Amino acid sequence: MARQSFPVVLSAPSGTGKTTLAHLLVDSVANLEISVSHTTRPRRGNERDHVDYHFISDDEFDAMIQRKAFLEWAPVHSHRYGSSAEWTQGKLDEKKDVIFDIDVQGGLQIKKRFPQSVLIFILPPSLEELKNRLLTRGTEQPGKIESRIEAARQEIETGLATYDYVINNEKLDRALFDLASIIRTNRLMGFDREKIRRKLLGE
Fold this sequence. Notes:
By secondary structure, this protein is an alpha/beta fold. It has 8 helices and 9 strands. A hairpin with a 2-residue loop joins strand 5 and strand 6 (about 80-85).
């Protein structure tokens, strides 16, 4: 039975675990692919080019904007991030669902382009726990932690007000189960009922 493929957007404050959840989802749910964002920020730790991100220069990013190569793009914490429009459309045409690990600005842009998109906001157990995760991760300078927490407050406000679903990542396995359930439910809702009616009942 044919169904309409759709983008799945995961957004969350930095340090909430959305990237981990995105990769676990791809491993556990069939016919789902993850979009690799383009970014102007430098690599962190063991990040790999074309796997974790497409790391590009500001000039390259500007050129992609000019030729309308991005499905969405946004400035985030002094750097820019964007998703490939051509790659995304190709995957949707192949009837694959595409998962995006992006911020709320990008998520709302994708929803405008593809109304069938499913927007899922992931909450940390608490802001105190989020702060502890950021400190433990060790990728942020101590002076920037508070600005990350303030940004998290704003993202949570937007996510609660505009996203289709909100889940809590207090326990990773439970959050993964909830995410997979949302995707499977939306797949069932996306079947073309008129085609099914014609096939089973005729004109």
